Amino acid sequence: MTSSPATTVDHPFFARIWPTIAAHETDQIRALRRENLAGLSGRVLEVGAGVGTNFAFYPDPVEHVVAVEPELRLAARARAAAAEAPVSVQVTDSTVEHFAAEEPFDAVVCSLVLCSVGDPDAVLRQLYSRLRPGGQLRYLEHVASVGFRGRLQRLADATLWPRLLGNCHTHRDTERTITGAGFTVDNARRELTMPVWLPLPVSEFALGRARRPA
């Protein structure tokens, strides 16, 4: 018999270190977060809100954000950030797999989260169904690299990296998974956020806008 996915996750080490990492993000990554949210309006679903780092960057036309964060320690911090946000933010501490909404959203935001979900294909199909026709998926994700960095990513994914960092898998072809779920990518680019000589597997980011066809 197959067990159903858990409604929350428990990553105590990651929950301890992520607030510090998030508080010391580089100006470049902060600028990418802001760009990822630019121009949004209406009702927004944010997946994997972490400690609420995105909340301060939502533009005024956004009416309401439902932010899903299944790690209870991080969700508590996200609620504190929501109280200071310039737009209305509601934080729910369940996995996206268990999240249900009565009406579709105008946009879905994914920031550094698709690397950590158990089944990216299923999650993106679910997010597709949560969007109104013509609604947007905004994503900022670190993605699979090639060459030496790609080999480093595969090594990291096969050893301790996912266990220590909240199930993060660094060598995922996230953009192919997005199109495989039915989304049309309108524009996307990749940026290297660390020097090429620095041997870290999470240096290459994809920033993009996709949509559910109308």
TrEMBL record:
InterPro entries per UniProt: SAM-dependent_MTases_sf (IPR029063), Thiol_S-MT (IPR052356)
Gene3D superfamilies cross-referenced by the UniProt entry = Vaccinia Virus protein VP39
Q: Which Pfam families match?
A: Methyltransf_23 (PF13489)
Instruction: Indicate what this protein is called per its UniProt record.
Output: Phosphatidylethanolamine N-methyltransferase
